[in-house]
Amino acid sequence: MAETKAAQNTYHLGTGRRKTSVARVRLCDGTGKISINDRSLEDYFTEDKDRVAVTGPLEVTDMRNRLDVIVNVQGGGFTGQGGAISQGIARALKAMFGPSEPAADGEGEAAGGGMAKKLRDSGYLTRDGRMKERKKYGRKGARKAFQFSKR
Predict the structure, then answer these.
(1) I want to staple 65 with a disulfide (CB 3.0 to 4.6 A). Which of 32, 83, 112, 143 is the partner?
(2) Which residues contact 101 (CB under 8 A, 6 or more apart)?
(3) Predicted TM-score of the model (pTM)
């Protein structure tokens, strides 16, 4: 009984970032339940595009109904949080099936490498580096300047 309890508590961690959002993701074996800040996926994200972004890495790797996902996300808006969660799930999947577990015949490394290759080719392991530009001193905003007058 203690072995099954230890197997359930084995978590694989991943951190995702987009704009000002940061998502800490934990994956464990389960039935496909996704919990974001102690709320379900449907309660947290109202738009389908955000839900698709979150479940994208799980769909690509065919792990949607085999893993439970627990997410703590902070900062930014809903779209930024969806992108951060997506990257965090992809990184956790890479850590879960990565080459950290050596196999005697080398098959385990190839399987983990294939998982990471699927995620990378789909663009889930790449961080979107676009950020909001800061306001500059002596200007109205990030880019806008005061009206120029020659005379």
Answers:
(1) 32
(2) 108, 112
(3) 0.80
